[in-house]
Design goal:
It contains 11 helices and 7 strands. Helices cover 42% and strands 23% of the residues. With 301 residues, it is an alpha/beta fold. It is globular. Helix 2 runs parallel beside helix 5. The chain has one domain: Rossmann fold (3-Layer(aba) Sandwich), CATH 3.40.50.150. A 7-stranded mixed sheet has the order 3-2-1-4-5-7-6, with helices on both faces. The model has no long low-confidence stretch (mean pLDDT 89).
Length: 301
């Protein structure tokens, strides 16, 4: 049998197609949905709930890692694409010259600005931006930043948007992606109601594709893993059922499915009407120097 040999260009094409065609969430990304999530996240942060403490730890660890790697310097100018509530960009700004946060949601941007003001951080700006349609040349963003930062954002969920983000860097790029994600409550709901595990769109496929694309194109990314365990009590109500269906991408916004999830929660609630959700998240952090490339065009498989 003749052995198949793939050129470097063909492997890049295949990994690009693998990434673009991988399973995705069924969530509908819109300003309305992300504005609603912004309000939910802001509320949990303000109340000091587990999510707030977990996020704070991850932000601190991420910024510490970037500082130890020599990425964040007094003269560093950065952009955080898909900045959400602005916690990463605000903390990056504390360690550098300036940070810019971009997000699709007006409510996210408003809360991010409020947070920066409350923290007396004056060297960070936030701007409403649909990055997928943004023209980085018209905006003057091409090669404009020492660090291009992304963390678990749909703004760069496809290769073309990821490469547009890379083009904004004049030195460093950082991307936090899921290596694995196990939601044990969601798994129990899915097995009981549908006889199958939930869709594994956070299974590390993106990380696998991104690393290989970077390597084949001559970059040499540093790799670091960060694991996060959480346990929280949720009210066994319809609001929680809808969040599991929509935010955790079990069944979208189909009302009969939400009702089925609600009944499951009621059946498994404790005496106080709560259900416990345990989640293990494993992140992969990729950091690479956009100015340092090695010729790997000779690679064959």
């Amino acid at each position: 049998m003749e052995k198949t040999v793939w050129s470097n260009e063909e492997m890049i094409r295949r990994f690009g197609a693998f990434w673009d065609n991988r399973p995705r969430s069924v969530a509908k990304h819109s300003e309305k949905i992300w504005d609603r999530r912004a309000a939910e996240w802001k509320k949990s942060f303000d109340e000091g709930k587990e999510r707030s403490l977990r996020n704070k730890r991850r932000v601190e660890e991420t910024v510490r890692y970037l500082t130890e790697q020599g990425v964040l310097l007094p003269e560093t100018e950065s952009v955080d694409i898909g900045c959400g509530l602005g916690r990463f960009s605000a903390e990056i700004a504390r360690r550098s010259k300036h940070a810019l946060g971009l997000d699709y949601s007006p409510q996210m941007i408003e809360y991010a600005r409020q947070y920066a003001e409350e923290q007396h951080i004056t060297n960070v700006d936030y701007r409403l931006c649909d990055f997928k349609t943004a023209d980085i040349d018209r905006e003057g963003w091409r090669s404009a930043f020492d660090l291009v930062f992304t963390s678990i954002t749909p703004a760069v969920s496809r290769r073309q948007h990821f490469e547009k983000a890379m083009a904004m860097s004049r030195k460093w790029c950082f991307s936090a992606l899921f290596a694995d994600y196990q939601d044990f409550l969601l798994a129990a709901v899915s097995e009981k109601l549908y006889g199958r595990p939930p869709a594994k769109w956070r299974d590390g496929a993106s990380s696998y594709a991104v690393f290989n694309l970077l390597w084949l194109q001559g970059y040499s990314p540093y790799v670091h893993y960060y694991t996060e365990d959480s346990s929280e009590m949720l009210a066994a109500d319809r609001e929680t059922a809808a969040q599991l269906a929509e935010e955790k991408y079990l069944c979208g916004d189909n009302e009969p499915d939400i009702e089925a999830v609600y009944r499951f929660l009621c059946e498994h609630a404790d005496d106080d009407g709560g259900v416990r959700r345990n989640i293990r998240r494993k992140f992969i952090w990729l950091l690479w120097d956009a100015t340092d490339r090695t010729d790997r065009s000779s690679y064959n498989r």
